[in-house]
Amino acid sequence: MPIRVLDPQVVSQIAAGEVVERPASVVKELVENSLDASSSQISIAVSGGGVSLIRVMDNGVGIASGEVELAFSRYSTSKIGNLEDLESITSLGFRGEALPSIAAVAQVDITTCGVSESVGTYLSLNDGAVTNERSQGRSQGTTIMVRNLFRKVPARLKFLKSLATENSHIANVISQYALAFPEVKFNLSIDGKVTLRTPGIGRLIDTVTEVYGLEVARNMMEIGDEEWEGGAADSALGITGMIGSPAVSRSSRGYLSFFINRRWVSSRLLAWAVEEAYHGLLMQGKHPVAIVNISLPAGQVDVNIHPAKAEVKFQNERLVFNTVQKAVRQVLIKSMPVPKIEAPATTYAAPSEQRKLLWTSSGSGDRLTGLPPPPLQTPLVALPVLRVLGQLMSSYIVAECPDGLYLIDQHAAHERILFEKIRDQKARQGIEVQGLLEPATFEVNPRQDEVLKSHCDSLGEFGFSIEPFGDRTYLVRAVPALLYTKDWAGTVREVLDSLSGGDWAESIAISMACHSAVRAGQVLSDDEMHELIRQLEQVTLPHTCPHGRPTMIQLSSGQLKREFGRS
Ligand code: ADP
Ligand code: MG
Predict the structure, then answer these.
(1) Which single residue of 138, 161, 469, 565 has CA 20 to 30 Å from 384?
(2) How crowded is residue 15: how many other Cβ atoms within 10 Å of its Cβ?
């Protein structure tokens, strides 16, 4: 094909693709515009996963009647004027791309009324072209309706996920901006139901309560703006926000929010800084809850490196990393004079062929069980018969077999046993269920709400009887018997948070096993240890827990002799 200049309509579709990836990106751009317009109230309504309708209504400064059409042409913005302005951006938007991009892939209606205008303007666009314009009454502010998103871009439509997933992305965008702007009153309704409402009186803790629920809010600690040792005092870097005590840790990083000069960004560097601050305070695989606001001179951060402006680049990464880490660590240390530090878990290396051979059942072990000896040299996964010697540090079972010594991680081993039991019971549709004496209410955050709405049934298959009960609240009537006296609510939350990753049924089973297994630090009686080992001998994969970590380490008699210098 010869080289030729693309048709303007194709160009606008390509450009739109960079900004508008999915319905939640439209919501993000529109809400950012409302925030840039100094709104104190923003209401968002969506239906059909945001594909049928997205409506964002604000009470901001509005657009002057003579500029409404211009706002929809590419690269028109009121936020920067020249090259120098690009060096010191203080608004969330600045490229003048969002409105034209949205209009290129949807039907858009806008009603807006600028400051000190007596009458507003209504403008309607289809495929980016204006189809109607007239004066219309409206109080100061802007309402934008976006309908039939991607109807003319089937390739995009095809890549959208389920309604629940798109809704959960939208709920997340609003939750994040609500956390960044506690002084703004947000109202999100999804398919006619209010999903999130914040008071907008400027207190972050109120927003945290609305977004994450009371349990999390009760465990949040404020990051003070005091000067910490070697910290921000001499730089222009300010850190505020709230962090959760280690007691409210979560199994995903979805509860880490970062705002740079109030822009919501995702940053591996910052996530790492916060997690470093929690080092030793959380169990492996657990992540903290944190809302971290970083303010710094606009010239020290480049916000123009990502199409959706979701990532930024700091001039001095090291300074930012150190300051965030110290600020968070300081709050943690202050709140916990005697932190209980978990022993660092050993890093897991996949067993080599040779190590697998060490686990091969020995002849004498089989004599004890009366089973025929296994064929020689097969790297079996079965365990030899073990004799329990005792418990170490209330966390490990010490056992021996003729081949040597075993140290078994009681939590990981029990997790494996329960995981296989749950999986087998589920396959036979025989999960044991225990009714609660009184139905319990269960609160979820907007994101979890969207997931739970459509997954009550799958949880039902695992023994949870959960039904909707008003605003982001559910009624739980029964739980799997295994979890009856355990943290079943934590299990459900963990499962809801892990939606995006892979196999649902498997993550439910893993989470149930993890929450119902004996803990490290729990003293076990001889009988309990024997029973655990007996059950471990029965499972199909005794050497790793369902997360893939080892359940045991072995010191062979040969190794012992070598260590002690015996031949
Ligand atoms: P940008 O935000 O990068 O400037 P947009 O395409 O998102 O580009 O918006 C174009 C312009 O339209 C903005 O610069 C602003 O002047 C105006 N605008 C958009 N939304 C609103 C709103 N909700 N309230 C007031 N003005 C708005
Ligand atoms: Mg914008």
Answers:
(1) 565
(2) 17
Q: Which two tokens stand for residue 212?
A: 């994450």
Q: Inform me whether the pLDDT recorded for 379 exceeds 60.
A: no
Number of H helices, E strands in the chain: 18, 22
Q: Which H or E run contains 32?
A: helix 23-36
* Residue located via tokens 């169990």: 283
Q: How many CB atoms lie within 10 A of CB 80?
A: 18
Which pLDDT does position 435 carry in this prediction? Answer: 86
> How many angstroms does the Cα of residue 184 sit away from the middle of ligand 2?
18
CA distances from 7 to 11, 103, 150 (A): 6, 17, 19
pTM value? Answer: 0.67
Minimum mean pLDDT range among 77-86, 246-255, 473-482: 77-86
Question: 453, 223 in Cβ contact below 8 A?
Answer: no
Please give the average per-residue pLDDT across 359-374, as a whole number. Answer: 31
The CA-atom distances, in angstroms, between 16 and each of 12, 77, 307 are 6, 16, 10
Higher pLDDT, 485 or 290: 290
Question: From the alpha carbon of 29, which atom of ligand 1 is closest?
Answer: 7
> Residue 93: CB within 6 Å of ligand 1?
yes
CA neighbor of 439 nearest in space, from 403, 469, 402, 471: 469
Q: Which residue puts its alpha carbon closest to atom 16 of ligand 1? A: 78
506's tokens: 């498997």
Distance 94 CA to ligand 2 centre (A): 7
For ligand 1, atom 8, the nearest C-alpha belongs to: 96
Nearest-ligand number for the alpha carbon of 102? 1
CA 223 – CA 237 distance, rounded (Å): 14
Asked if residue 62 has its Cβ within 6 Å of ligand 1, the reply is yes
Residue whose CA lies nearest to ligand 1 atom number 25: 62
pLDDT tens figures, 419-463: 999 988 888 888 888 888 888 999 999 988 988 888 888 889 999
* 144-163 pLDDT, tens digit each: 999 999 998 888 888 888 89
CB atoms within 10 A of CB 362: 15
Ligand having the closest approach to the CA of 79:
1
Q: What is the pLDDT of residue 341?
A: 32
DSSP symbol at 168: H
Neighbours of ion ligand 2 (CB under 5 A): 33, 93, 98
By most ligand atoms within 8 Å of CB, the mutation choice from 30, 32, 36 for ligand 1 is: 36
Could you tell me if the CB of 33 is within 6 A of ligand 1?
Answer: yes
Compute the mean pLDDT over every residue in the chain, rounded to the nearest whole number. 84
Confidence class of residue 15 from pLDDT cuts 50, 70 and 90?
A: confident
Distance 51 CA to ligand 1 centre (A): 21
Residue carrying structure tokens 């549709």: 429
Among 267, 359, 361, residue whose Cα is nearest residue 312: 267
Confidence of residue 175 (pLDDT cuts 50, 70, 90): very high
Q: Quick one: how far is CA 144 from the chain centroid?
A: 29
With H, G, I as helix, E, B as strand and everything else as coil, classify residue 495. helix
